[in-house]
Write a structure and sequence with these properties.
49% of the residues lie in helices and 9% in strands. The protein has 415 residues and is α/β, with parallel strands linked by helices. The strands form two sheets. The chain has a six-stranded parallel β-sheet with strand order 1-8-5-4-2-3, with helices on both faces. Strands 6-7 form a two-stranded antiparallel ribbon. Bound molecules: nicotinamide-adenine-dinucleotide.
């Protein structure tokens, strides 16, 4: 890794990050000490029906004299339609909240982020996408992830499905970063293996993709004085490397032994550190193509990232050889020369994807040959990600990545 001293360091984060088993018990006293009195809890029915930890939170808020309303209509991959419906419900029922608490996976956190903007102004969310200043400041948000993967509790974005659009749309601005991120690994113990695998591979993707992305000194911030994403720097790379190591060390155990405290804790930290990297450095082709693939197949976010990740890594062997060699070592590769190691990194990453039972090529994913061109063009249409591609011209690279992902072809594969 050859970042030079003229590579600027930026780190954008929530104001407070708490990470510990049991950290959820600090939420109510903290909200009270911050002067907040009316909470809107945003979650989904699984939690209101099954989660004693959520019941304890509601009780604890009550004991701290904080009024609570609960919106439990969250859905996987929230849409602009759901956001508008929830906004109307909140504005019609009761007093205006003075803060939100998002409880759930990335989907509920993204819905809450969007509501933090739409509830004060009452405007349809589609009208607010693409802007970084909104009619009123977003309400403060406490984000409590129950999966270990998305890092939405750290990022400046709310990712929404927009009916009729080929890829997801994003509300994106630094003011959208939660005020408080509360990462309590115990909340992930109830994740079914499929959710653990999807989220865990999302975390690994964030770590690796942001580790390999453009340097801050070459990243195009388009004159933005307060960009959400601004390229990799020494600090983001430090977090990315640690996150990668933790994911290779703990993800398989968390998947196979859901009650393993050390593995759940390791994955919670992997997800957090990956977010601390990518939520400043930004992402590129894996997410660009994964959004296109999700538009085509409606498959889960983690699975669409997982199938693209090894082929994107393979496309960067020339421009990111040392980083990929380091990743291969973290994944357990035996010592070899740098290039051999670099070519092993995608192979070992794909082996992990397979071990977790996810599709590792586009044919197995159910994509047909006549859909490949559309995948490339839809992927390239997410320009904020395509312009951060650190290798050969993005249009050629995306086409070759998609073709290799269809054929299941990696340069380091024996035979
Ligand atoms: N804003 C961002 O920066 C960002 C980044 C990455 C992903 N995302 C978004 O996050 C979403 C994916 O989030 P996710 O992978 O966390 O899954 P999810 O939030 O969609 O949840 C998947 C399912 O798992 C259930 N679940 C969650 N936690 C559970 C638990 N502890 N026990 C039992 N069930 C549980 C949920 O109820 C849901 O049914 C996608 O919509 C994606 O676009 C956002």
């Amino acid at each position: 890794m050859t970042l030079t001293s003229d590579n600027p360091i930026t780190l954008c984060m929530p104001a407070r990050v708490l990470c510990a088993d049991g950290a959820r018990r600090r939420i109510a006293p903290l909200c009270k000490s911050l002067g907040w009195r009316r909470a809107l809890v945003v979650t989904d029915r699984w939690f209101t029906d099954n989660s004693p930890a959520l019941s304890e939170l509601l009780q604890s808020l009550h004991e701290h004299e904080i009024e609570v309303r609960v919106f439990d209509g969250g859905e996987p991959d929230p849409s602009t339609t759901l956001t508008d419906r929830a906004t109307a419900w909140v504005r019609e029922e009761g007093a205006m909240p003075d803060h939100l608490i998002a409880w759930g996976g990335g989907s509920n956190i993204d819905l809450a982020k969007a509501l933090s903007v739409t509830v004060p102004c009452g405007r349809p969310v589609a009208e607010l996408v693409g802007h970084t200043h909104w009619p009123q400041s977003p309400l403060p948000l406490v984000a409590v992830p129950t999966t270990a993967g998305t890092g939405s509790e750290i990022t400046p974005g709310a990712i929404l499905v927009q009916p009729g659009s080929a890829t997801k749309v994003a509300l994106m601005a630094n003011v959208l970063r939660p005020a408080v991120a509360v990462i309590d690994p115990e909340l992930t113990w109830s994740c079914p293996p499929r959710v653990t695998a999807d989220a865990g591979l999302d975390a690994l993707t964030h770590a690796i993709e942001s580790w390999l992305t453009l340097d801050a000194c070459t990243f195009d911030i388009a004159g933005d004085a307060d960009p959400g994403y601004s390229g990799r720097n020494e600090l983001t790379v430090m977090f990315a490397r640690k996150a990668t190591a933790l994911a290779f060390q703990h993800l398989t155990t968390a998947f196979e032994h859901p009650q393993d405290r050390a593995a759940r804790n390791g994955m919670a930290r992997s997800s957090l550190y990956a977010a601390m990297s990518y939520a400043t450095a930004g992402l590129n082709a894996v997410h660009g193509l994964a959004y296109a693939l999700a538009g085509l197949t409606h498959a889960s976010h983690g699975s669409t990232n997982a199938v693209m990740l090894p082929y994107v890594m393979d496309a960067l062997v020339d421009s990111r050889c040392d980083e990929l060699a380091d990743i291969a070592r973290l994944a357990g590769a035996p010592e070899a020369d740098q290039e051999t190691l670099a070519r092993q990194a995608p192979v070992l990453t794909r082996a992990l994807v397979r071990r977790l039972g996810l599709a590792s090529d586009l044919v197995t994913f159910g994509v047909t040959e006549d859909q490949l061109h559309r995948l490339v063009t839809d992927g390239l249409s997410v320009t904020r990600l395509a312009k951060a591609w650190p290798g050969a011209p993005a249009n050629e690279a995306y086409a070759s990545i998609v073709s290799n992902a269809y054929l299941g072809k990696l340069s380091g594969e024996k035979g």
